């Protein structure tokens, strides 16, 4: 048996959990390659025009995996109870994939997280293991080890970021979802460019999740989406330690469009650049905007020191 894992959407947030879980069960898996032009085009061909860029890329990765594995992992996430709900694409992605590729003989492996209906993460993984013919006790053990691996990786990322925050360089807080910021085709070039410009990118999605959720109320008390709450909470955590903020979203993401507007209206003490990534080839326009943004930040710093 071989499981296919699309390198898109929730992969960047949960790959330690998924891969360790399958490793502990002795199940082979294949991860689709980094997003490239071919995968991007596959996604564009399979998606409707109204879908967000991130969803289109996801479909491209699913398309790549068809025929290369026995099942493709397509989790469904509805909500995390009191912590909040998620974007509808995570609730609907199973049905979207199933219907888009129904004529291609696709077999989907999924788990469902819906805390409001008692479908916790552990229960979801146990059910997934049962579907694969794995005994309950073995699935529980694999899930427990996988959660510990995930927690260890998150702690290491948080500690590394805290070290970066203490460096005496211009620091830019990037507010973007994992699946945008780490995608080689759309988000990673921006992070690499900022580093090449001598600045330190601070990743909002690396912030401690529990603390970020608590801090999010300082900017908005009514935001429903848990992943966006974690991001705006990172602003409250890091705003005193960074010199500027970049909001990076994929084209026509509904939740991000609303949340970014809230941030622009309520966070007034830092320069903010709002970047919408649309998947167009060529980086000259974005690089020009980044250069101008960094020039503004440097000017403000220089002016501050002159006044002192």
Summarize the structure.
The protein is α/β, with parallel strands linked by helices. The chain folds into two domains: 2-149, 3-Layer(aba) Sandwich (Rossmann fold), CATH 3.40.50; 167-307, 3-Layer(aba) Sandwich (Rossmann fold).
Task: Jot down its keywords.
10 strands, four-stranded parallel sheet, Rossmann fold, disordered C terminus, alpha/beta, 2 domains, about 300 residues
What's the arrangement of secondary structure elements?
Blueprint: E1 2-5, H1 11-25, E2 28-31, H2 37-46, H3 53-65, E3 71-73, E4 76-79, H4 88-100, E5 108-109, E6 112-114, H5 121-131, H6 136-165, E7 171-175, H7 178-181, H8 188-196, E8 200-203, H9 209-215, H10 226-238, E9 244-250, H11 254-266, E10 272-277, H12 284-307
Helix pairs in contact: 1-6, 2-3, 5-6, 9-10
